[in-house]
Amino acid sequence: MIEKKEEYLQKKIEEETKKARANAVSNKAVATAALKRRKVTEQELDRLAGSRLQLEMQVNTLESANLNAETMAAMKKASDALKVIHGNLTMDKVDSTMNAVNEQRELANEIAETLANPIYAGVDVDELKAELDELQQDELNNRLNEADHVPVHLPPGSVRAPEETTRTAVEDDEETQLKELQAALAM
């Protein structure tokens, strides 16, 4: 409606300007009256433009208020949704749950550590090593005793002194036993 009124006033201003030009030389009174009407019409057009600006500002304010109202409604819905989600949750319940989770994690770690330890973890390794050394020494002693009773076969034509023969046999037997022991320890 304001736009139509502005168009009408604009046409009226143009008509009054034409009348004033047409009568400027021939009839100054008519020209002056046309200029006065044009001036009044221009003031009316300015007031109308001011009103239009005020209405546009009101429209913007209403749109902004509507947007604010929608935003608030959305925020309220979000708040209500959070209340539903959190339900009966309290910090005490959260702390209690977290403590229970931590206890279960610690229990799982203890179980994992227990399963990772070897079955013989309770056995004293130094004691086992000492017992093994004792068994090896006993075995070497037994072999040495058996070596004392083994006859030494010499190739025909070679003669050795009995003391030298025994020492050589014992040294050979000790070397053999040492190699066997090294092989056994390497396993």
TrEMBL record:
Gene3D superfamilies: ESAT-6-like (1.10.287.1060)
Keyword presence, Iron: no
Localisation: Endosome
Keywords (A to Z) from UniProt: Endosome
Superkingdom of the organism of origin: Eukaryota
Comp. bias (Basic and acidic residues): 161-170
Region (Disordered): 146-176
Alphabetical GO biological process terms: late endosome to vacuole transport via multivesicular body sorting pathway; vesicle budding from membrane
Gene Ontology annotations for the cellular component aspect, listed alphabetically: cytoplasmic side of plasma membrane; ESCRT III complex; multivesicular body
Entries under Pfam families matching the protein: Snf7
Family that this chain belongs to: Belongs to the SNF7 family.
PANTHER family, alphabetized: CHARGED MULTIVESICULAR BODY PROTEIN, GH13992P
Protein known as: Vacuolar-sorting protein SNF7
